[in-house]
Design brief:
six-stranded parallel sheet, single chain
């Protein structure tokens, strides 16, 4: 949709003024499949139950595969490329919409977004950091650029959020933890989505026997997810005990081979299952989840596994350490450790947390009472947005 042609839609007979007053603008690169984008779709649905409408501004200027989900939930996705013309176009959009809040997820360039939001009269201006690193080398020029953008955030943000302490300090320095505007807000998860098709016979589909070990890895085939290491771990385990590994996420086997041409070829028990509407059935069927990532913020896939009671063997990274202090089912391993070390950690974990004794319903009920539930996250954000609205639609389930 062209920005010049876009107009906000009225919903359920609301007046234009009322709709604008309860609108939140979220800024990110693109609504493509990823953890942040999935969480935003779930948040959009939950906010709609409170009468809050979401507009997503995509700074890549491109559409994404999740655009239709936002529109289905009553929101809008507006391409607005982050280039030389962005300030004028974005400011005009904000003046037209008069949103209650602007919530930016694009790391340090958020500083420019929030400056424009402040100049456009938006009262709630939120910077939200999602990763413990951007993985890019810090040249002298980049350090100057980062310092300038951090300064803009400090001067224009009303709230500075992170999914972990590490995500905050990586972006803004250690002093941010003493800033009254800064706080850690975990990603909120909709467990009902995870329970969809929960009785699907995944182990039978994989050809796994009852005593076979079934592992799952959830994530895209990007370098930081370190998928080739997951294959090496599974191959190491398979020499000790019949092991199946399900790789859930967007990638083809040929792409994996291209990303790591010298790795051992996967055994017949490696299953590339592709992108799924929900990883829930795979996590329920698994004995454990493995996540040998090189970089993470607060990995949504780990929280999804924990919500269902599935134990996790993951890289020893700052954001995961914070989760491990709350969840005993997480075992941390040096991401550079050998496949043999990972193998031993998996075997201990599945012995300590056996699949046969797992009570998925009890795990989900406990998770829904925690600060990681979508309801808890939404209530917290409504307060940050300055929106004290009544719930208009009861949640299903």
């Amino acid at each position: 949709m062209n920005l010049a042609e876009w107009r906000p839609r009225s919903k359920r007979g609301a007046t234009d003024a009322n709709e604008r007053s309860s609108r939140v603008v979220h800024v990110l690169s693109r609504m493509e499949v990823g953890g942040v984008e999935r969480r935003l779709v779930e948040l959009t649905e939950e906010l709609s139950k409170h009468g809050v409408c979401v507009t997503v501004v995509a700074t890549s200027g491109r559409g994404g595969s999740l655009d239709s989900e936002v529109v289905r939930l009553g929101g809008d996705v507006i391409p607005c490329r982050l280039d030389a013309t962005f300030p004028l176009r974005f400011a005009r959009l904000l003046i037209r919409l008069r949103p209650a809040a602007v919530h930016s997820h694009i790391a340090l360039p958020t500083g420019l977004v929030l400056l424009l939001a402040r100049l456009s009269g938006v009262e709630a201006r939120i910077a939200h950091f999602r990763s413990d690193s951007d993985g890019k080398p810090l040249s002298g020029l980049r350090k100057i650029r980062n310092r300038a953008l951090s300064c803009l955030i400090n001067h224009n943000a009303t709230s500075i959020l992170g999914v972990s302490n590490e995500s905050l300090t990586n972006a803004m320095g250690s002093r941010v933890l003493r800033d009254p505007r800064a706080e850690v807000i975990p990603n909120g998860f909709d467990t009902q989505r995870l329970l969809k098709d929960s009785d699907r016979p995944i182990r039978a589909e994989l050809g796994a026997m009852e005593d076979d070990l079934v592992l799952v890895h959830v994530g895209r085939a990007s370098a930081e997810k370190n998928r080739p290491k997951a294959l090496e771990i599974a191959n190491s385990l398979d020499s000790h005990r019949s092991t199946h590994l399900a790789l859930v996420g967007p990638a083809l086997q040929e792409e994996e081979s291209a990303s790591c041409p010298n790795r051992p070829q996967p055994s017949r028990n490696i299953h590339f299952v592709g992108l799924q509407d929900s990883p829930g059935p795979w996590l329920i069927a698994a004995d454990a989840m493995i996540l040998p990532s090189l970089r993470e913020g607060q990995p949504g896939a780990v929280l999804e596994a924990l919500a269902l009671g599935t134990p996790v063997v993951a890289s020893d990274l700052p954001g995961l350490r914070e989760l491990a202090r709350e969840f005993r089912q997480i075992t941390l391993v040096d991401p550079q450790a050998s496949p043999s070390v990972w193998k031993d950690a998996v075997l201990v974990t599945v012995n300590d947390w056996p699949r046969r004794t797992r009570d998925v319903a009890a795990c989900v009920a406990g998770f829904n009472r925690s600060r990681y539930s979508i309801c808890s996250a939404t209530q917290h954000l409504l307060g940050i947005y300055g929106l004290k609205v009544e719930r208009t639609i009861e949640a299903s389930g």
